[in-house]
Design brief:
The protein has about 170 residues and is an alpha/beta fold. It contains four helices and five strands.
Amino acid sequence: MMKAALILGASRGIGRQLAITLSRNGYKVGIAAKTVESTPELPGSIYTVAKEIEEKGGTALPIRCNVRVEDEVDSAVQTCIEQFGGLDFAIYNAGAVMWAKVEDTPVRRFNMLHEVNLRGSYCMIQSVLPHFLKQKSGKILLVSPPIYNRFVVTNTRHARIQNVKFASKPKVE
C-alpha cells in the first residue's frame, strides 16, 4: 500500500525537495502552501511542485493553505486523508524570518512570525494527531526556520540537523 504525506510549506526550497524525495520513495504527497503562482521574485508554487512530481510518475495533490488560518490547516490535513485514504507523515516546513533588531521589529511583524513559525505548527499537530492515534501510527516532522542570535547567544546563526537521512523508503512506525 502506498504511503501518504502532507507537507505544509512545500512550494520551494526544503519543502519542495522533501516532496520530491518522498514521492520518489513511493509516497503520495500533499503539496500545501500559500503560494499558488510562481513569480520571478518567488519562483515555485504548489502547482509547479505538483507538476514536477507528476511528470516523474508520482502522485501529488496541490492544496492552497495559509498556515496562519487554523481552518485552512485543518482542511489541508482532512483533504489529504480523504483523497489519499489516510495520512502517514505530516511535515511542517512553513516558516518566516526577519533579520532585524528587536527595536526595529514592529509587534505586528513579531506576531506574524509567531503565527507562522509556532502557531501554524501547533495547528497542524492538533489536526493530524487524532488520525495518527486512531491508526496507531504516523510521523510528524517540524522543520524550524533558522535560529539566530537575536535572543540567544551562540557560536552559530543556524540550527543544525545532524544524522538525518532518508533511507530508500522512510520508515513510518
